User: What shape does this take?
Amino acid sequence: MAKRITNDLGRDSIGKLLFRLAVPSITAQVVNMLYNIVDRIYIGHIPDIGATALTGVGVTFPIIMIIAAFSSLIGMGGGPRASICMGQGKYDEAERILGNCFIALLGISVVLTAFFLLAGEPLLLLFGASEDTLPYGLSYMNIYVSGTIFVQMALGLNSFITIQGKAKTSMFTVVIGAVANIALDPLFIFVFDMGVQGAAIATVISQALSSVWVLWFLLGKRTKLKIKRKYLQIKWAVIGPVLALGVSPFVMQSTESLVNIVLNSSLQWYGGDIAVGAMTILSSLMQVFTLPLTGLTQGAQPIISFNYGAGNNDRVKKAFQLLIAYGFGFACLFWLTVLCFPQVLISFFTSDPELVGFASWAVRIYLAAIFMMGAQISCQQTFIAVGQAKISLFLATLRKVIILIPLVYILPNFLSDQVFAIFLAEPIADAVASITTVAIFFLRFRKLLRNNPNVWEQTASVPSAQQPDGLPMEK
Assistant: This one.
């Protein structure tokens, strides 16, 4: 049996804690990355139709991101709120938050499923589908959105496992689904000869397995926070603060969807299907970058949130320092890999020589400033961890809505190569947003800790020789 370690979040070495929490979270996100892109890898290698089918599935990406964004609205809003309550010793309030989030996710699933099934075709045309690629996109989307409830349960509730220090358990949520998807994809696509529809069916089955795992844990005996019947009702006093905090990660993901729509429609206009196909691959590589970094921030979030709630400012600062150092280092490593080996990365998604050549050129432009994003994401996620909803929302909208989208429409009017201009908008937005976010963070962070209300609360209620305990964790 795995050895249990107690008092981790409140007392253990921050470096060891971050390692214990971040490694499983990063592993989960890397596997989740495979979960998200394995369909595209298999579809891109379907004989004869691979490039066209890949482009068709690529235009469904905004819908997939919107569905995931709603799970983040609830999960990433409820998780830190519940974690802060746990740091304050308010476990009943944390379970009330969990119950409200569970009901909210159910309601969101019903609404999203109905909407996308009814409005799918016009949406895909708006997103950049052509006459050739629409049938593939529509086939994939109709099946995928039918499994929306599984996405909401698996992604939205998994954060309530992570905040308990159960990093391995939350990792298995993703691993179970990803391994199933990787195994089922070739079976349905090639053996059963179901093509794009087979890829979608395999994904829905895999997401269902992940959601069963999450619910099994949160209804079982090993969880510190349990889904309880008495809390299964929406209370605005509970769900309101959750939505206020969750709106930042929601905007981050939903605007990613909006950006993808803007990029695909503009690239379809100026460059045709091959440009949209390249954008599908570049979006996948962006996920290769962001998901492991998300795992790192998820590993740091329980440490930061718990200790902020417990009034331990020194531990909050130490956790942030390690987070930004590792985040920036990973971003630089990824950036160098893209610059040195673009064709190797692109060839994972397609064997079409024309698409490989076009995408290899585009990726060096599109991800030219990605090395700066490690610091930007670390600062933004730390604001979320300490419950700063308003500033997190502003920073989430800055890069994509305020800077990137206008540049996609403005730059082609000033550069003769319009496709180049569209790809160039991304690194400009990355650089400006990163510099702005880091500057704002370091101007506000010290003041935020100095005015931490929990420092006074803990000083008044806890004897000086004692500190609030952390949570048992899995090693």
